[in-house]
Amino acid sequence: MKQVISLLLVSPFLIYFAFQPLFNHVVHLQNSVLEIVMDQGIEKAAVDGRFTSETIQQMKKTVAEVLHYSESEVVFEGTQTLTPRGEYIWGRISIPPGQMSVMPRLFGSRPVTLSAGAKQMSEYIPR
Fold it and tell me: What pTM, to 2 d.p., does this model score?
């Protein structure tokens, strides 16, 4: 009987330490995807002088396809006005939080919105 009680007391910790690294890895991969998409988007936006609607749509579509979100859940904010060469443009893309912990109620995990941002000098020369 003592062994059963001991197992019941220790089992939440065993489950946590066995599966939490997988959740951490998934969150890391999601954040990596956001950073890569943001880097590609800021490069295109620097040449165009702003984030065009096509660039934003392509970024949202890529994130939605790779991470299995709907495009409406992917949020973008950034420079959408034409910016001449020498001034900075910036952007941030974010997704809603998923489950980040094996046992969120037991270990008190707060949802965090995953996002990636970038800032780069514009290369657009007005003609």
Answer: 0.84
